[in-house]
Amino acid sequence: MPVYQAPVEDTLFVLQDVLNIEKYGNLPGFSDASPDIIKAVLEEGAKLCEEVLQPLNQVGDHEGCTRNQDGSVTTPTGFKEAYKTFSEGGWGGLSIAEEFGGQGLPQTLAAIFNEYVVSANMSFGMYPGLTRGAMAAIVKHGSDAQKKTYLPNMVSGEWSGTMNLTEPQCGTDLGLMRTKAVPQEDGSYKISGTKIFISAGEHDLTSNIIHMVLARIDGAPEGMKGISLFIVPRNTLNDDGTVGENNGVSCGSLEEKMGIHGNSTCVMNYDDATGFLIGEENKGMRAMFTMMNEARLGVGIQGLGIGEVAYQNAAEYARDRLQGRALSGAKEPDKPADPIIVHPDIRRMLMNMRTFTEGARAFVAWAAINGDILERSEDEAERQKSSDLLALLTPVIKGVMTDVGFQTAVDAQQVFGGHGYIAEHGMEQFVRDARIAMIYEGANGVQALDLVGRKLAANGGRSLITYFGELDAVIAASKDIEGVGDLAAALKKGRDDLEAATGWFMQNAMTNPDNAGAGSTDYMHLMGLVAFGHMWVLSAKAAQEKLAEGSGNEAFLKNKLITARYFMERVMPDTATRLARISSGSESMMALDAEAF
Amino acid sequence: MPVYQAPVEDTLFVLQDVLNIEKYGNLPGFSDASPDIIKAVLEEGAKLCEEVLQPLNQVGDHEGCTRNQDGSVTTPTGFKEAYKTFSEGGWGGLSIAEEFGGQGLPQTLAAIFNEYVVSANMSFGMYPGLTRGAMAAIVKHGSDAQKKTYLPNMVSGEWSGTMNLTEPQCGTDLGLMRTKAVPQEDGSYKISGTKIFISAGEHDLTSNIIHMVLARIDGAPEGMKGISLFIVPRNTLNDDGTVGENNGVSCGSLEEKMGIHGNSTCVMNYDDATGFLIGEENKGMRAMFTMMNEARLGVGIQGLGIGEVAYQNAAEYARDRLQGRALSGAKEPDKPADPIIVHPDIRRMLMNMRTFTEGARAFVAWAAINGDILERSEDEAERQKSSDLLALLTPVIKGVMTDVGFQTAVDAQQVFGGHGYIAEHGMEQFVRDARIAMIYEGANGVQALDLVGRKLAANGGRSLITYFGELDAVIAASKDIEGVGDLAAALKKGRDDLEAATGWFMQNAMTNPDNAGAGSTDYMHLMGLVAFGHMWVLSAKAAQEKLAEGSGNEAFLKNKLITARYFMERVMPDTATRLARISSGSESMMALDAEAF
After folding, report:
1. Is the ipTM of this complex over 0.90?
2. Pick from A579, B176, B369, B489: CA 20 to 30 A from residue A1's CA?
3. Pair A133, A167 in one domain
């Protein structure tokens, strides 16, 4: 069975030393998050993930979910009890306001805890994850009555939630949506239609499921401008708030899929189900978009979470497996062979994984802190800045972290050789599970187009200007620190490639928008390299400063500096290739007739 | 169900126009392979693959193999009949000499047909594939009596074959092998031990299975120098040549694995099984190594084969799926949305796939022709040259083609969005199946080390000198052709990066061999980029010449030139990043303590 130990020490380093979370003490919730509290929360969360969730991960993959004849869905053995433990611990409402029964802690803590959950059991984590998404919609767009009706039971884990967007003919292009909403005299709507790929759509973990459903009100405008968002509980609520009859909502079938077998992916049928408008008529897409930063951060975290657990298992295997001898001479001559961790190519894979997981952990925390500022700060300029940075970098978080997270799982599997291909060791499950994160919540190509086609240009390019300002400040503050200055110089090179790529778009995409589309994925990854480089310079700077002070775990801090250096030497140089690709434009890419493929 | 159409037109272009197969008419077997014969063989083979093998591919994945209580193994529905059809068509012995019942055709044709088989049904293809490997061992190292005893029944498909190398404690490091061979008075040996990951180890397709088993003769030297190769038939042979009793060979269990479910991957137990030495005592590794070029080419072809079928399905889906509008304005305004093939990022993935499949097809044929020259030419200098080139490039064929083949399957799945994650469409099967090719027959990191640690230095670096000679001749012959010259210049740049990387190794690996190991995978991929670039310049040159003559399919030839250009603009630039990584050395890669991971 795979091993997993939550990386609490690294999380604390990121929060306290790299990002100085204490300086946000003025934000609501942050004053409750003292270093001691954070440490206690993370250690308690780690225990839950390691001891309760992780042992169910292979069970979930092996058993999958079962749709029973009555349309109900049974989750894998142990999931129901684990969900109860999870909910009773208050983990479902970590960052939800106390008035709704939550803990009121920073979103940052919830995001970090979410990494641990994904590492332990991604499929399980999707049940509370989708509930969090649905709660976010209600918090931001629901009426006071809706908040009061739904949130407390969702926070407590009594009810769960889902998001219903996709239909057979509409995935990325939600304008093609057909699910209908017919207004009723009492102000409610009758919802009818079929949704597909609905994660956690039906299951036995909770007594009710609150579906957030996008649909088109009878007579609404065509396309994206005619879509509204509805709350559709699976079971109606009685006047006393108890759960009533089925509301015309049923799971038509479960999808048979590559991975995340422990999560129920449903075809959902709505047959004159009673729904309640949330937010304004025909403004459903806007309601969805405001939730997207958080949802996409959540999917990006899936890349990190799977990457981390896959890395840990690869590292353990590489220390234990004896095969061959070191190129520089036997390292353990008394054994029949050396452990494979002596081989540079094994190290290469482990170090690549490590630059990703540690860099991504910092990146997630950085983004989540900006999310907290955006939600909680009273300083408008500060909110604006965080909003700009998040808007710009959310597609990067989602697209790059899931691409590299998948690659990390593939590399970790590779370390196991043939044993990685066998189900028993669990490595191939990580690959299958990680794969979905590149697809859902906006396929990574769509993220790239969002970045290049929308985010770069928004508000006269203010987001990117703000981001370059951040980068330049970090580079300036680091360039004269011994042992960090050359890392900052490497970041500067990447940043300059990013600027050059942006300039190329400005010169070439106006006349032919395909020139932007053709470079979009490379641009997203180029920005991702810079974003990771940014985190590595910050991390190296923090490590160097602590070493100079003589505080902290010396070995840990020195390893940070080495890993930062490895990142700059081995990962960062890819910005040059990305720039070369972008600058080649769209001509040869678009030249073939569709029929020629 | 996935579609598949064997790319016969492209194969013929590669053989006839790019590689001028007719100029090898003096080699045995090639005179029988006139253009008409080649076309007829490929078309007949295509039909078999499309109509018989491909419809069983999802069946095989879904059903898998079953081990029965008596230890026998049942293959998926339809495999037995398909194997009969395959064998009766003479496809199992395409390139085996006529004296043993084969067709005596060039290996090149067998390699190309193998691509089609893999595309149609990789798991099925492994049964005849392993038989081919076992036959190759007997052809090259067996006695005349052994050839006569085994080959005719293996060629006819009456019997099949396997290769038994891996044991639980020994994969890459075969020196750790424990399976024992005890000499008997009659010259035979009693073989005892356990082998794992034995593809096609037990099944119901044939009346006997001829296992090629590596084992250590009692008292043999430690390590690799004490390993011998044995023929161990599952059932003994009666004096009249008929199949007798079980020979102490049994399948202990089937591995549960990520993919290739249609192939039986067995734990094989040998319990005083009678085995017959093949080749010399303690020279088993040498016997294995001489087969490796062919086996590794075969696995490289798996990368190509899966890449091709995945590409074809992605292209079809991209033409059919309506979602969103082209950046440059609606292309099909009368439809609710444009087909997704209008989107540059979809094109990017399709063009990447195409540069791989077409480039790899040429690379496979180029390598296979060199294999035929090596086996069949009477000109020693010509044989030497082919031997040098094959030795150098075999790790590249195996390592790069399986890495990029897997990436191609992943990209093809991505084109399908959420539908790619669902089993029904078959795209996720391609990803799972393709994954194994990066691992078996020497994991790709081992290929890279073979290239850098062994092949580069062998014979004073003669192989690389020969290869640079080939490249330089092609560049010189192409540089002044309009429309090809700038492609040749891009190849020159890649070739120079390869030379610089080689020079870096020469200067830095003597003092610290980890500097070679640290750059090995990047070097392998750098050489792969150059090798593909080589094929693309040859292909572009051939296309341009035919266009100038006004012969051939004009659209096809123009698309070749466009795709060659795309390769040089978008794929080739990665050589610079590879070189930068290599030149950074091993210091930060190797600096952490093993316990720090």
Report:
1. yes
2. B176
3. no
